[in-house]
């Protein structure tokens, strides 16, 4: 998705200037997202300064959110994360992608299932809400069963506040390195079609039994089917919708309208 972008932290003065400009144009803003990549890689003191500047310029501010990697959450003490929560950082977006180590290794995730689960628990311990993403089809045909089973195990052991699915689409120009990276481990990647991705979604929804409710969504534009509900409460309704789409095509998003 970001294959053609190089991540680097911007000088704080530039960030403050952006905040000042935004506050002049949208003084009523009550929600802010810290773009792009992984703002949590910044030192905690820098994040404090950014959050304090947001609060000073936007009097109606109630929520700040950010992307995060498991590693950068795990590097910060719970007390440091709680300090960010006190400054209105309330939601982080964290990619699970898969709960299976072989799949994570092949996509160069840079995290293990244990590290991902640890990060989710750590964020929750600090009072942060966590929105996690899982990618349907990421294991291909070879790892499909293991991909979903291991992802279910991870989510059941470390349930996020929100869980969303994306659907892998190898037509996208942003993924030119996917195949070589996968195949250097000795097997050819065989992508799933829509029906197979719907089957993965059904297996995911069926097996999820989190100890507390999870808000589940598949409304990202990459998905063949858009769903929303609360697990486990809405499990049967979600499965019925998936089954209808699987057998009749009802509700499927046209490929021309899908994107990342």
UniProtKB/TrEMBL annotation:
Requisite cofactors: [4Fe-4S] cluster
PANTHER family found in the cross-reference section: ANAEROBIC MAGNESIUM-PROTOPORPHYRIN IX MONOMETHYL ESTER CYCLASE-RELATED (PTHR43409), RADICAL SAM SUPERFAMILY PROTEIN (PTHR43409:SF4)
Keyword Iron: yes
SUPFAM superfamilies cross-referenced by the UniProt entry: Radical SAM enzymes
SMART domains xref list: Elp3
Gene3D superfamilies per UniProt: tm_1862 like domain
Full protein name: Fe-S oxidoreductase
Alphabetically ordered keywords of this record: Iron, Iron-sulfur, Metal-binding, S-adenosyl-L-methionine
Organism: invertebrate metagenome
Keyword Nucleotide-binding among UniProt keywords: no
GO terms for MF: catalytic activity; iron-sulfur cluster binding; metal ion binding
Transmembrane stretches, start-end: none
Span of domain Elp3/MiaA/NifB-like radical SAM core: 1-191
């Amino acid at each position: 998705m970001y294959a053609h972008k190089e991540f680097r932290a911007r000088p704080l003065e530039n960030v403050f200037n952006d905040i000042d400009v935004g506050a002049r144009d949208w003084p009523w803003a009550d929600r802010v997202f810290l773009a792009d990549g992984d703002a949590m890689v910044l030192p905690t003191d820098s994040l404090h300064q950014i959050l304090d500047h947001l609060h000073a310029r936007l009097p109606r501010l109630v929520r700040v959110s950010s992307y995060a990697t498991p590693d950068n959450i795990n590097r910060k003490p719970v007390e440091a994360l709680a300090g960010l929560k006190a400054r209105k950082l309330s939601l982080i977006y964290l990619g699970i992608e898969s709960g299976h180590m072989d799949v994570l290794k092949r996509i160069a995730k840079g995290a293990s299932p244990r590290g991902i689960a640890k990060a989710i628990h750590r964020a929750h311990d600090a009072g942060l809400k966590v929105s996690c993403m899982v990618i349907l089809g990421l294991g291909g045909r070879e790892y499909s069963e293991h991909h979903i089973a291991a992802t279910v195990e991870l989510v059941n052991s470390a349930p996020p506040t929100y869980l969303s699915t994306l659907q892998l689409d190898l037509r996208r120009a942003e993924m030119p390195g996917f195949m070589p990276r996968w195949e250097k481990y000795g097997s050819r990647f065989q992508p799933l079609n829509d029906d197979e991705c719907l089957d993965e979604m059904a297996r995911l929804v069926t097996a999820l039994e989190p100890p507390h409710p999870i808000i589940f969504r598949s409304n990202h534009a990459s998905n063949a089917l858009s769903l929303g509900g609360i697990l486990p409460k809405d499990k049967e309704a979600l499965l019925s919708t998936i089954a209808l789409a699987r057998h009749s095509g009802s509700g499927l998003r046209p490929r021309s309208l899908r994107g990342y």
